[in-house]
UniProtKB/TrEMBL annotation:
<dbReference type="InterPro" id="IPR036388">
    <property type="entry name" value="WH-like_DNA-bd_sf"/>
</dbReference>
<protein>
    <recommendedName>
        <fullName>HTH hxlR-type domain-containing protein</fullName>
    </recommendedName>
</protein>
<keyword id="KW-0804">Transcription</keyword>
<dbReference type="InterPro" id="IPR002577">
    <property type="entry name" value="HTH_HxlR"/>
</dbReference>
<dbReference type="Pfam" id="PF01638">
    <property type="entry name" value="HxlR"/>
</dbReference>
<keyword id="KW-0238">DNA-binding</keyword>
<feature type="domain" description="HTH hxlR-type">
    <location>
        <begin position="28"/>
        <end position="126"/>
    </location>
</feature>
<keyword id="KW-0805">Transcription regulation</keyword>
<feature type="region of interest" description="Disordered">
    <location>
        <begin position="134"/>
        <end position="158"/>
    </location>
</feature>
<dbReference type="InterPro" id="IPR036390">
    <property type="entry name" value="WH_DNA-bd_sf"/>
</dbReference>
Length: 158
């Protein structure tokens, strides 16, 4: 079989849900979020759990290239913040799954608005980042970053 599974089909077979998991292409607006909720992966985990509880392995396969360590840390931080809860999975295997709490679900509208903003402004955002990175390279590698870190506004910034 080659080792690759359709994550949605796998999720259906393991947890009996037919709700599709969202797709996170590295160039999708969600990946370019300038607005962060929690850690880098929090918003994407919230979106993956929108359709119902998911097992760790399903989340990890879907959120490639996240490592098991980073996903575990993200889920733990989200649990601490009351965004997700860890519960026993239905079935005889004694596995666990993660589900959104009502507090976690309250982020769905916020994330959707932020995604809409990113879709509308993605070109501007990417041009700004490219200009910032290019100016930093022409200033000896860290001129732009150093000015940014100190709160100064270099004359090359728009």
């Amino acid at each position: 079989m080659g080792g690759h599974r359709n994550v949605t089909t796998y999720a259906e077979s393991v947890i009996g849900t037919s709700s599709p998991l969202p797709s996170f292409d590295p160039i999708c607006p969600t990946s370019a979020f300038p607005i962060q909720i929690g850690g880098k992966w929090t918003a994407m985990v919230v979106l993956c759990l929108e359709g119902g509880p998911r097992r760790f392995g399903v989340l990890r396969r879907h959120l490639r290239p996240i490592s098991a360590k980073v996903l575990a840390e993200t889920l733990a931080a989200m649990g601490r913040d009351g965004l997700v809860r860890r519960c026993l999975a239905e079935g005889d295997d004694g596995g666990v799954e993660y589900e959104l709490t009502s507090l976690g679900r309250s982020l769905l509208d916020v994330i959707e608005h932020a995604r809409g903003w990113a879709r509308c402004h993605l070109d501007e955002l990417m041009r700004a980042r490219a200009g910032f990175d290019q100016a930093g390279q022409s200033a000896g590698g860290d001129g732009q970053k150093a000015a940014y870190d100190t709160g100064m506004r270099p004359s090359t910034w728009p």
